[in-house]
């Protein structure tokens, strides 16, 4: 059983360790989980993710309860079918799904997991980032995954619901080098969501309009503004900005269509563009325009960076890169990237970090991949 020091990272270290355990068929014991955090041990959302992975992978697990600081996980083989979990709080559904998405490379049948919790909450990717940015990018490299949103859930009540669908996948090498200087963001799409209780104040419209005005003034082509109001248990708002890079990618016929809403393998070949995305979450008392400008600032930070992806997506691509091989230009080597690379090496996989010359920010992550994928 591989022993992992859980204090070397937070929830992402735990989620990655569980996913890699299933993929490599290597039992793990994770000690001092989130030991360096102010409130160490598993929170409800972490325990739910471990139990969901155990159910899907037919694993034996100990310590998958709230407050536990040690988890033992002995994986089986992922099976298809339908599963359901309830986080019971506003814990992040997108982070729960992040634990399971890499398992598509060892799945032998399609599976679906319906989960309830928070869809758009702090310290996690908003739902639009997962559905509009990350999953379309992973599908480009052959990973069959899709999400269907049933109901929005903001902090503190949560109450959101969504379904993750995974399909058996063989992934191609991930190639995301830094675009040439002439390959700036081609088009911008803005997705603004708010609770129905905020409709009279036009919160979603104001967020989208501010993003459009700011980025259009800087020469970006804002091609789409999607405005949505949702019935939610707690009031909230979120804006996500997706930037499509030049160049069309034709996705294979067995990929999952990103817009069909039924989470079934697509028929024929459809087109998409590689994309990057940033988001900002509303807070009580914070003006809509201020929320929008936070997203715009993060978009500018990416546009001026060395990376081919934003820093948060760079964190989340470390495990897929280790499985598929290839290279990714990241704007900075975050603590999440560094701890994930160390973890991956514990599982016998390889990732090389090539820092830019002169110590400037940004790096290339390279991996030969894993033979069994």
Automatic annotation (TrEMBL):
Family of the protein in this entry: Belongs to the RNA 3'-terminal cyclase family. Type 1 subfamily.
Family annotation (Pfam families): RTC (PF01137), RTC_insert (PF05189)
CC terms in the record's Gene Ontology section: cytoplasm
Name this polypeptide is given: RNA 3'-terminal phosphate cyclase
Function in brief: Catalyzes the conversion of 3'-phosphate to a 2',3'-cyclic phosphodiester at the end of RNA. The mechanism of action of the enzyme occurs in 3 steps: (A) adenylation of the enzyme by ATP; (B) transfer of adenylate to an RNA-N3'P to produce RNA-N3'PP5'A; (C) and attack of the adjacent 2'-hydroxyl on the 3'-phosphorus in the diester linkage to produce the cyclic end product. The biological role of this enzyme is unknown but it is likely to function in some aspects of cellular RNA processing.
Binding-site residues, ATP: 312-316
Major localization listed first in the record, in broad terms: cytoplasm
Catalytic activity as recorded in UniProt: a 3'-end 3'-phospho-ribonucleotide-RNA + ATP = a 3'-end 2',3'-cyclophospho-ribonucleotide-RNA + AMP + diphosphate
Places the protein is found: Cytoplasm
Enzyme class: ligase
Catalytic residues identified in the record: 336 (tele-amp-histidine intermediate)
Taxonomy of the source species: Archaea, Methanobacteriati, Methanobacteriota, Stenosarchaea group, Halobacteria
């Amino acid at each position: 059983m591989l022993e992992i020091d859980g204090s070397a990272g937070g929830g992402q270290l735990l989620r990655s360790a569980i996913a890699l355990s299933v993929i490599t068929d290597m039992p793990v014991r994770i000690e001092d989980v989130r030991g360096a955090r102010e409130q160490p041990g598993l929170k409800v959302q972490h325990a739910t993710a471990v139990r969901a992975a155990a159910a899907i992978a037919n694993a034996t697990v100990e310590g998958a309860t709230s407050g536990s600081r040690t988890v033992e996980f002995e994986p089986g083989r992922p099976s298809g079918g339908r599963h359901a979990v309830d986080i019971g709080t506003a814990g992040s559904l997108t982070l729960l799904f992040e634990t399971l998405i890499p398992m598509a490379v060892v799945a032998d049948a399609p599976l679906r997991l319906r989960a309830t919790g928070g869809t758009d909450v702090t310290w996690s990717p908003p739902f639009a980032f997962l559905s509009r940015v990350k999953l379309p990018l992973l599908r480009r490299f052959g990973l069959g995954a899709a999400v269907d949103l049933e109901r929005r859930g903001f902090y503190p009540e949560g109450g959101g619901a969504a379904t993750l669908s995974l399909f058996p996948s063989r992934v191609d090498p991930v190639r995301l080098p830094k675009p040439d200087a002439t390959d700036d963001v081609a088009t911008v799409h803005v997705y603004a969501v708010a609770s129905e209780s905020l409709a009279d104040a036009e919160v979603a419209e104001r967020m989208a309009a501010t993003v459009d005005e700011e980025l259009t003034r800087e020469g970006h082509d804002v091609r789409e503004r999607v405005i949505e109001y949702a019935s939610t248990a707690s009031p909230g708002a979120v804006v996500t900005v997706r930037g499509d890079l030049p160049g069309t990618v034709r996705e294979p016929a067995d990929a999952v269509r990103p817009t069909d809403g039924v989470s079934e393998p697509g028929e024929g070949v459809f087109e998409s563009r590689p994309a990057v995305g940033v988001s900002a979450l509303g807070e009580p008392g914070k003006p809509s325009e201020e929320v929008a400008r936070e997203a715009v600032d993060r978009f500018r930070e990416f546009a001026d960076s060395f990376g081919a992806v934003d820093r948060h997506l760079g964190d989340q691509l470390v495990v897929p890169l280790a499985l598929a091989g290839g290279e990714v230009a990241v704007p900075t080597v975050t603590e999440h990237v560094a701890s994930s690379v160390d973890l991956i090496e514990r599982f016998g996989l390889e990732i090389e970090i090539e820092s830019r010359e002169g110590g400037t920010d940004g790096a290339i992550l390279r991996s030969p991949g894993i033979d069994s994928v």
